[in-house]
Amino acid sequence: MRFWSLDVLRGLCAGIVFLSHWHIWSNFAPQGAAESFIRGIGQNLYDFVTLMTWPTGGQHPAVIGFFVLSGFCIHYPFERRALTGGKNRSWRDYFWQRFRRIAPVYWTASALGLVLVAAEWWRPTGDPLLTLHAMASAPHLVVRFLGIAGAYPEEILAGNYILNTVSGEILMYACYPLFHVFALRGRWGGLGATFLGLQLAAIAALGMLSPYWVFSSVFMLGIFWYAGALAAHLFLAGRGPRSGRWLIAAWALFLALKATPHFAGLNLLKQAAWGLVCFLGILWLVRWELSHPAVGGQRTIVSLCRLGDVSYSLYAMHTPAMMLASWALLQIGRPSYPIQLAATLIASLVATWLVHVGIERRFYAPKSQAATTSAS
Prior knowledge:
With about 375 residues, this protein is mainly alpha-helical. The protein has one domain. It has 15 helices and no strands. The protein has helices at about 5-25, 30-55, 60-85, 90-120, 130-135, 140-145, 165-185, 190-205, 210-215, 220-235, 245-260, 265-290, 300-310, 310-330, 335-365. The radius of gyration is 21 Å and the shape is globular. The N and C termini lie close together (about 5 Å).
């Protein structure tokens, strides 16, 4: 079963990550009033998104949304089958399906990151942003391609640093059978305590390990994955907050925390509050979809669902695509801000389309369903 509301949310999350990176990584200096005006529009939009959603000092808000969404989408079908007396798929099928879903695109994106590393090593640009993203060592490359960065206590850049969060999800998928055992026994309190313990361990590790790794690791993000699975459980059980007022109240709490004078732990509280917004938002969305099935056929919704369909390829590919486009412009001596905007956009969209059509669809092509109210 597919919820079109969650496809829309997935597309919006990927789009926000892409647009925020498109703005901050288009780092060539604007020339003249027109280019400065364009840069100013991007900065104003970036500042607005930061104000309304970003727990600054923590993980990207859309990445937190992805983890909550992932927990919901993985756990929902398993618990739904259990409640309806259906036969669960074998764990062998589960792991094979997850492998086909994640690994081909992940390895392709890792390889494109390696191309950036090689390009910057071959003809270095001296650009600080490209130099930073092209940093890599042999152990880091091995960890990247094995997909175990979520448990490896160092930050890995290697041309595509955002794949670290994908590695964190891979670890969650690998551990899901154990999670499933306790979830179907109703041990949600114990599971919550476990993920809270991982969060506390991550907080303790902040003084010893790279915070860039800690905040992208499953130890920090796992509790948001748990929140998504809990949302699926509450939805199927017909429990949990139903009114959108709870979502508005949680968002207001998040904004109030952002306005609070800084104190130790404030960033973590903001991140937790945003996770609560995502948890309540998903519960509200799927229930709203059940009450408004016809909305799923509207042209805008269908377009956003298509964005959700390519969201993984867009998320995985846009970083090295942008960096390689900027590298190429510096090699030919064209450090133009508008050309950089166009080149990074085109490179990202082309890379996304090629990987989605040539890799993602080839290895993972679930049946497309218009998830009607009755079907959901």
